[in-house]
Each structure stands twice: as C-alpha cells, then as structure tokens.
C-alpha cells in the first residue's frame, strides 16, 4: 500500500510539473504576441505621422 501511495504522489508531481511548464510556455507565447502587436501598432503610428509631415 505504501509503495502505491508513493507512486501516485510521484505521478501527481510529474503531472503538476508538466502543467506548470505548459503554462509557462503559454505565457511566453502570449508575451511574444503582445510584443508583435505593439510593434505593428507602432509601425502604423509611425507611418501615419510620416504621412502628416
């Protein structure tokens, strides 16, 4: 019984680690998308200002 509990705890720990890595990757992708959107918005603003001048 004790061995099964240890195996279950080890498996649960592996699942939690994988979920945490997945969230970290998702956050990294989200930040990359936000940076890309900011750059695109800045490029559009620069273009608009250059046409005004």
Keywords:
0% strand; 1 helix; 53 residues; 96% helix; mainly alpha
Question: Would you write up a description of this structure?
Answer:
With 53 residues, the protein is mainly alpha-helical. It has one helix and no strands.
Secondary structure elements and their pairing?
Layout (H helix, E strand, L loop, with lengths): L1 H51 L1
Taking pLDDT < 50 over at least 5 consecutive residues as the criterion, the unreliable ranges are none
Average pLDDT reading: 84
**Largest pleated sheet:** none
Helix and strand string, N-terminal first? H
Number of strands: 0
Q: Roughly how much helix do the residues carry, as a percent range?
A: over 70%
Report Rg.
23 Å
Number of H- or I-type helical stretches: 1
Summarize the structure.
96% of the residues lie in helices and 0% in strands. With 53 residues, the protein is an all-alpha fold.
